[in-house]
Amino acid sequence: MANPGNTGAEAERLAATFLQRQGLKLVETNYRCRFGEIDLICKDQNSLVFVEVRLRGNDAFGGAAASITAGKQHKLVLAARHYLQQLRSFPACRFDVVLLRSLRDNDIEWIRNAFGE
């Protein structure tokens, strides 16, 4: 049985592998700053993609998608702005969400442009 404390890290690894198979390039994992954390940062051609990964085994309380509240979205936007301040130029950006119902490849839902500013 998997260690429950590692399921989030496993979900992020699975999501990263999935996105790489879709053609994205992984730039950074678990970017942390005073505003919060961004699970994955990827490049999709000329765009920078900030990815939130959510694992929810059931749909109680709205499931994984509902757990990304307006407050969480705001923190992700602030963390993304913090990350962008370190770059020399500002690429096109988007926020994607990867939802997992389990730690299996066939239980992944990828939502591109899930939210914005």
Automatic annotation (TrEMBL):
Q: Family per UniProt?
A: Belongs to the UPF0102 family.
What's the protein called, per UniProt? UPF0102 protein SCD_n02501
Pfam families in the record: UPF0102
GO molecular function per UniProt: nucleic acid binding
Gene3D superfamilies named among the record's database cross-references: 3.40.1350.10
Q: Show the taxonomic lineage.
A: Bacteria, Pseudomonadati, Pseudomonadota, Betaproteobacteria, Nitrosomonadales
Q: Which PANTHER family match?
A: UPF0102 PROTEIN YRAN
The positions making up the signal sequence are: none
